[in-house]
Amino acid sequence: MFIGCSFSVKWVGLFIIALVGLTTVKDLWDLMGDLRLSVAQIQKHFLARAVCLIIWPILLYFSVFCFHFLVLSHSGNGDGFFSSEFQSTLVGNDLYDQKVPEYVAYGSVITLKNRRGGGGLLHSHTHLYPEDLGEYQQQQITAYTHKDDNNKWLVKKTNSHAPLPGANSSIEDVEFIRNGDQIVLEHVMTKRNLHAHHQKAPMTPTHYQVTGYGENGVGDANDIWVVEILGSSGSGNHGDQVRTVTSVLKLRHLNLGCYLHSHSTQLPKWGWEQLEVTCNPQASDRNNLWNVEGNVHDLLPHVSFEFYKPSIFSKFLESHLVMAESNNNMKPKEGEITSKPWHWPINLQGQVFSGGDHRVYLLGNPIIFWGCGLLKILFVVVVMLKLFARQRGYLQRMRNEIQAELDVFTSNGLWLLVGWALHYLPFYLMGRVLYFHHYFPALMFSIMLAGVTIEYSIRLLTALLHPALKPLFYHTSVAVVLFITVVSFLFFMPLAYGMSGPKSDNPESSMYGLKWLPDWDILAIV
């Protein structure tokens, strides 16, 4: 149950699942070596662990998300990260209980949604690309995960003078968009067309740049895009109509042969940190896939979005894809202090959370951090000495009491060391932005290992003394350890509860004199 709960709270719980899995494998391996157990009994042991440690946590985890979807059923700022189908289930969203035209026609005002997990809506605004990006200083095209009027595009024929259905038209005058059609997309707010040319994209130089070009909807031949509908077996049939939400589309640039593309790469400040949109020469890239999300046409009949709503299992899978995508793409904000994994065990650098009258600086207690590090090294040394002693036959000469203590110590300590490594080492492989607090789960295992090491060291030294001295030495040692722990906490207590009053460089400050390392930014908190 607790495995399922830990993973439900945060995906770091996956590391504790790995630790439990390793201990279970070791346990089953030991059972297999117990010849008193029959094969049927071993199978029962395996089945019991599979049900309790695999199936039950998975069911609990899935149930948590079912309850999550039930309670959090309303629209919010993050709607744009999810697919059109997912959004249709959120109360307050534009797509909830909405009726829209089933098919897209010339004259429709649409929004285009990139179909990758966390993909944005095709977007433009009046801002131009910077001059240093090339000879074409044209209007920016981006993907934006929030909804506004700058996401709306008018679908036109390639002949800019071709009339669109007007107020006096009837449904017989409507011409639907079909697979293979050549279209022009005009940005409703700025009257510029979706355009691509032989200029490198700003963040992805292997792709072509996509811009907004023209005046009042009049551009040039580089504004023409070919609609390609994907079917279940690849490309759709020629003449298939584009359906709202359900049709999976590619937009191929007529002259360049590249495909409208968006990915997780963010533009710099000049692009408002929105997602880059490019024209990708690689036709097979799944980030080239789009669907029509919004569709407005005065002459077309409307159908209910109820038809598009996904199942609970589909929502579960999509939410996880979006979470994973968002997590992997987290980048540091401008001026933000981040850290590297090797900083954490040595408490090299803290993190400023707030300044002003009430100051908060996240920093580990150096006595605890450095003490845990030294005790971890001591534990590894003891394990190495034990292996050496066993190889040389010295273990047999030890008293049974000491041998038993040593076996318990190394066995328990090794599992705690594995737990620390599982919660710490994977961060070296992560490309996302990292912070000091990511070390805290690993720190718990480090502290537990330190406790085991201290306990064993005191017990070992006590066992070597005269029986009359054992109680005094043991209790004195425990008292010294507790005294150091409490004093170190009191010394650095302002870090735990926040600071106010004089600044850190003032002798009257509660933090004065505590800048033990040059990288501690205690003095920077003003």
From TrEMBL:
Q: Where in the cell?
A: Endoplasmic reticulum membrane
Q: Which reaction does it catalyse?
A: a di-trans,poly-cis-dolichyl beta-D-mannosyl phosphate + L-seryl-[protein] = 3-O-(alpha-D-mannosyl)-L-seryl-[protein] + a di-trans,poly-cis-dolichyl phosphate + H(+); a di-trans,poly-cis-dolichyl beta-D-mannosyl phosphate + L-threonyl-[protein] = 3-O-(alpha-D-mannosyl)-L-threonyl-[protein] + a di-trans,poly-cis-dolichyl phosphate + H(+)
- Sequence similarity: Belongs to the glycosyltransferase 39 family.
Q: Name one Pfam family in it.
A: PMT_4TMC
Q: In which pathway does it act?
A: Protein modification; protein glycosylation
Name of protein: Protein O-mannosyl-transferase 2
Q: How is this protein situated with respect to the membrane? A: Multi-pass membrane protein
Q: Where is the MIR domain?
A: 101-158, 174-230, 239-295
Q: Which GO terms describe its cellular component?
A: endoplasmic reticulum membrane
What EC number(s) does this enzyme carry?
2.4.1.109
- What InterPro entries does the database record attribute to this sequence? ArnT-like_N, MIR_dom_sf, MIR_motif, PMT-like, PMT_4TMC
Under the heading SMART domains, the entry gives: MIR (SM00472)
This entry's Gene Ontology molecular function terms read: dolichyl-phosphate-mannose-protein mannosyltransferase activity
Keywords linked to the UniProt accession:
Endoplasmic reticulum, Glycosyltransferase, Membrane, Repeat, Transferase, Transmembrane, Transmembrane helix
Q: Does the keyword Transmembrane helix apply?
A: yes
The residue ranges crossing the membrane are: 6-25, 46-71, 367-388, 409-427, 439-461, 473-497
